[in-house]
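Contributing new complexes? Match this layout with NAP.
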Amino acid sequence: MKALLTGHTHGLGAALADALLAREVRVLGLSRGRAPERAALQQVALDLADSAALATWLAGDTLSEFLAGAGQVMLINNAGTLGPVKPPGRQSAPALAQAVALNVAAPLMLADALIAASPAAHDRRIAHVSSGAARTPYAGWSVYCATKAALDQHARAAALDAPAGCRIVSVAPGVIDTAMQAQIRATPDSDFPNRARFETLQRDGSLWSPADAAARFVDHLLSPQFGDEAVVDLRMLYAAR
Ligand SMILES: NC(=O)c1ccc[n+]([C@@H]2O[C@H](COP(=O)([O-])OP(=O)(O)OC[C@H]3O[C@@H](n4cnc5c(N)ncnc54)[C@H](OP(=O)(O)O)[C@@H]3O)[C@@H](O)[C@H]2O)c1
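Output block (do not edit by hand):
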């Protein structure tokens, strides 16, 4: 088994890399930085918010060489940003464009490339890392909500096109104790009126650790049920058990 994983250096992505490697999945990580070297982890430093740089990388051979010979291949589109946390009118064009490129263009480009580069694989699984914000609107998060909702709808539509053996799911991973949560708690109330709720979640010990979230994510990714629903929320899946 081989997995292409974005944002593997920190937070949920680092824990996903650990969980996949522990299950003997070979991982190709794409992030701007690098994680500590490990056997079975190949890394490429790439700014996924730079769509032209990503297109150039995809035109090369690294992805097809990595996937060669694998019967089961996976893509986890994990890298993401909150983007500008502000109401429209104060978001700024460059910050908006960067967030859309990272949160939407890169996952869609990588999904397309993975399917094209793995015709011999009998089992292909693509997971977008979405958010509850795709499904519930929050003031201050219009860019984040819209970009994550785009991933949900991409999974629903692409599932209709998917070749046999290819499944695609947009997964909300729960609320996880990462740098992104610290960034949320540090946002001024004037930009993100819902900030106090996230402080309460942390104070009450309600955040999932990255390791717990990653274990649940990978359990679902590798399960026979993966692909039954194009849009899932790990909190609902685990509450139902
Ligand atoms: N934390 C939560 O509570 C939560 C809840 C719902 C959904 N999510 C989603 O889960 C995913 C991971 O979130 P997280 O909390 O683990 O975030 P994080 O701690 O901020 O980590 C983000 C990861 O993405 C990579 N990344 C960021 N910008 C990049 C870029 N331009 N190009 C390439 N890689 C980039 C970072 O690596 P480099 O800095 O090395 O590039 C890092 O490995 C995101 O899609 C997020 O929206 C998180």
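Reviewers usually confirm one structural detail per submission. For this one: The pocket of NAP is lined by residues 6-7, 9-13, 31-33, 47-49, 78-81, 102, 129, 131, 173, 175-176, 178-181 (CB under 6 Å).
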